Amino acid sequence: MSALYARRASETNRGGACTGWARRPRCVNVRAVATRTLLKQSKVGRLGTLTAEGTPHLVPVCYALLEDDTLVIAIDEKPKRPGRLARLRHIDGNPRVSLLVDVYDDDDWTRLAWVRADGEAEIVEVGGGRDDALHELRERYIQYRSMALEERPLIVIRPRRVTAWRDATP
Description:
8-stranded antiparallel β-sheet; 8 strands; Pnp Oxidase, Chain A; alpha+beta
């Protein structure tokens, strides 16, 4: 992405409205139908955090988009290394994150698309106020229905900027 495009995109985002440019990523409203559809239909996202040294760290995650436009990620019971997960340690140190969700079709590149939500994450430890998030995650992922997610932290992302791209081939 050129520096000029990045500057123009950030300028258009200041007022809350973003204009699209053909074949280039554009800022979008998370409420846009195409954006919500991609986020709702895709099952896997890539969570980007930053290490203490500033190195990007990406992990595939299961997520859900809630009605209030927040994104939630469960820390599930799949086997993981002992101790606090790197993604949680990174968020503890720097809450700025990105969640990238994409569609890739090897046979039909006109179907390619992605949405990236940049924002701040909060780790919500065990406790109340998580019922809607857990319900939505369990609706999306049948494996979560038998897991004790109530006993594990959730990552809650509040998007500050949402960028999307899809092929504009007529």
